[in-house]
Amino acid sequence: MVETRKVQVTGGSTYTVSIPKTWATENGVSAGSEVEFYPEGDSLFLTPRRGDERTEGTLDIADLSGDELTRAVMTMYVSGFDIIALENSRITNDQRRTIREATQSLVGLEVLEETRDRVVIRDLLDSSELSIHNAVTRMRLISLSMLEDAMTALADLDRDMARDVIQRDDDVDRLWMVVSRIFRATLRTPKAAEELGVPREVCFDYHSSARQLERVADHATKIAHLTLNLEEPVPEEVTDALFDLHEATAQVIDTAMEALFTDDSVEATNLANEAREMVEDIDTEARAIDELLRDLDPARAQLLGLIVDSVSRAADYGGNIAETGLQKAAPTP
């Protein structure tokens, strides 16, 4: 329920306003308590001042194992818990192994305490030291390099390079988790956004774009897996066409990311529209490659068709980033 208060003037120059008693009681605010104010545009956020900002979450893992346990740890991490306590009447060796692997796959986590019935994980990173901009920039570099190397591995039938692309997907996933954690923190408290120095709306744009980059990396990984299934080199005509398609796709993603990162709204709009127009041309190129595949045996044609589809989808994800760039550049109501 919305409550309203009248602003009053005390001492001739100080503006004062009362706060709802129910809210104060629920949040432990009483006479003598200190509160913090965070201005954001025409809004002013008020929050109780806490001595220890680190949050602890406890999870019963009695019925969890394998991927379910891994996902549970990742969910607690993304949700913003600084200390994660995993409990069971007796934690099995398999559970301990899964917890360690999950911890190693996430940035900043370390096992702090380990007993018969409890494993405590702690985030050692200071949230003020994290940069959502740097994380997204790193995701951009890795995902684009993965896509390029996946196409090179396909052309050269380089299985070692294909396996390297598959391994690098873990790096992108780690960064995606970091971006998600930062974004959720800015939703939970205005202090997180202030420490980042990035408005919450921009954090949302970065989070949306990071999701698209994570999908680009997934399709680079898919291409690498498909390459491992190839037994014969791809015909040169098809390889050349695929490289042209890849170059156009990489240009879409790069142009879209530049639109996202620039603070010039006119430049951002022009770059974003340029990227969106290139996506339409890529659809035409993809259909032309599909025609070339008709001359191959059905099994190879199907496999290479999946690769064409993955490159095209990567371009679509670049188009989605361009849409986000347009929204970021639009005037704020």
From TrEMBL:
Residues 9-54 form the SpoVT-AbrB domain. It comes from Salinirubrum litoreum. This is PhoU domain-containing protein. PANTHER family: PHOSPHATE REGULATORY PROTEIN-LIKE PROTEIN, PHOSPHATE-SPECIFIC TRANSPORT SYSTEM ACCESSORY PROTEIN PHOU. InterPro entries: PhoU, PhoU-like_sf, PhoU_dom, SpoVT-AbrB_dom, SpoVT-AbrB_sf.
